[in-house]
Amino acid sequence: MNIKKLLSPSESTLSRLNSILPQIEEFSEELRDLSDEQLKLKTRYFQKRLELGEELGEMVPEALAVAREGAFRTHNLYAFRTQLLGALVLYEGNFAEMKTGEGKTLVVVLAAYILALQKKGLHVVTVNEYLVKRDAEFCRKTLNFLGLTVGFNTAKLPKHLKKEMFRCDVTYTTNSELAFDFLRDNMASTTKEVVLPPLNYAIIDEGDSVLIDEAGTPLIISKTTDVSFKEYIEVDQAVKQLDELDFRVD
């Protein structure tokens, strides 16, 4: 017995995920004979099962096979076993390290399809707006084909368009703009000014850059106010005139 493998969490995780691959391959074989319309109906089929109380984890092998077939029909890219493993790792909320050229963009699409079936919103976070637009367009082609919506969030989008983008099943955004939207929402005077929906799940592209390199950069936001300093002075003067009969200390 290899003690190193036994004690390594990543080794045991990969071993477990590898055991799922034969199920995905079986479903993939069945899906090849479906028409485009029949393949699209699979998305609604999964969502109906979720509505009836079934756990998402129970349909992951078949859902991943559907995403794989959808990517093949829209991009002529058929996911390899390594890419399927990467998608499973992301679905479970773990880090997946992939070398350049191993198809990371496709892996994100596969994982995004599974998670977006819940209709609770999914953010794909990356480091710059070029990647946001490029990868969102790549993902949109496949997920639109399968009946899901994809949007992207950038700094120059007006507030009403940001709301529309965040209502999509999957939204691509930079880490900085997502953080600034969060800060602006917390400064909002009314709920109508809030753009972010309830936060559910995020896939982080370039995790080392987002979570380590840029995490130390402070994000500062300010807001103008209509309140003049005169009002602060008046309140200060009024408070100083109070005596013990005017208030009670808890």
Automatic annotation (TrEMBL):
One of its GO terms (molecular function) is ATP binding. Residues 85-243 form the Helicase ATP-binding domain. One of its GO terms (cellular component) is cytosol. Signal peptide: none annotated. It comes from the Eukaryota. InterPro entries: Helicase_ATP-bd, P-loop_NTPase, SecA, SecA_DEAD, SecA_motor_DEAD. Pfam families: SecA_DEAD. Keywords: Protein transport, Translocation, Transport. One of its GO terms (biological process) is intracellular protein transport. Residues 1-250 form the SecA family profile domain. PANTHER family: CHLOROPLAST PROTEIN-TRANSPORTING ATPASE, SECA INNER MEMBRANE COMPONENT OF SEC PROTEIN SECRETION SYSTEM. This is SecA DEAD-like domain-containing protein.
